[in-house]
Amino acid sequence: MNWWCEIVKSSIGAFCGAAFAFLFFVLAEFFKSIHARQVKHWDALGRLEYMLNDQMDVLYKNMCIAEGIIVSAGSAITGQQSKIIFDRLHPTPVDKDVLRDLANADLASDLYSYFTRLNSMNSDIAGVTRKYECFVDAFLGKSVDKASYLVNLKTFAIEITDIAKFTKEYLDRCIDFTAQVRVRLRNDRPMLRLLTPLCMSKKNENDFAELVAIEKQRLESEMKLVNNSSTEEIARVTQDM
């Protein structure tokens, strides 16, 4: 009977060893997949920050350009001058593919909606610009008279005013998203997320809104500093001319 017990013990030992090895392999693959997903998420956040910075730059410049167009068109219409507006609004860069790698579903959903609206505004900008340029070509080719051109110029100014309102709204949203992404870049580092206990992770999420508010203030200060520097540089160059 002893030899039979020894066989059973050996079999159980071998089975437990194999089961432990299999369990270790499964756990290793599980944590490996989590880490890979976190790395892709963090890389996506980095690409998002770069794109959002570009968007902020374009949106702010478009607000300034729109203001110039409205003022120029207003003075031309008031003075009954057949003035050609050469300034143009620029399309805002949008790449939805970066959202595929985000692990945060809520952030990806919000950004998808925001990007969709930006693309819609880009289409509006292209349509308004194309329509005005067609009228300019017709006016320069003497196919339409001055009165008709001025009517179209007024329509162009009104449409640019509407676009400017959306541009200000999207600039505010862009600043908010940039602040969120910057905070998540610090909080969502792959190894940090893997080693952070669940209770600490929940605490970080609870502090998230406060951290975003602080980051937004920092962003707005950075933008104000850059804008002031640009204004001073333009004034200096203009004075030297």
Pick out its properties.
elongated; disordered C terminus; mainly alpha; 241 residues; 6 helices
Explain this structure to me?
It is elongated and about 65 Å long. It contains 6 helices and no strands. The chain has a domain at 39-82 and 105-228. The chain has 241 residues and is mainly alpha-helical. Residues 197-203 and 230-241 have low confidence and may be disordered. Helices cover 84% and strands 0% of the residues.
Write the layout of secondary structure elements.
Layout: H1 2-78, H2 105-140, H3 146-187, H4 190-195, H5 198-206, H6 208-240
Short description:
With 241 residues, this protein is mostly helical.
What percentage of the residues does DSSP assign to strands (E)? under 5%
**Rg for CA atoms:** 29 Å
Fraction of residues in helix: over 70%
Shape: elongated
| Overall average pLDDT | 78
Q: What class, by secondary structure content?
A: mainly alpha
Total DSSP E strands: 0
Q: Helices and strands, in N-to-C order?
A: HHHHHH
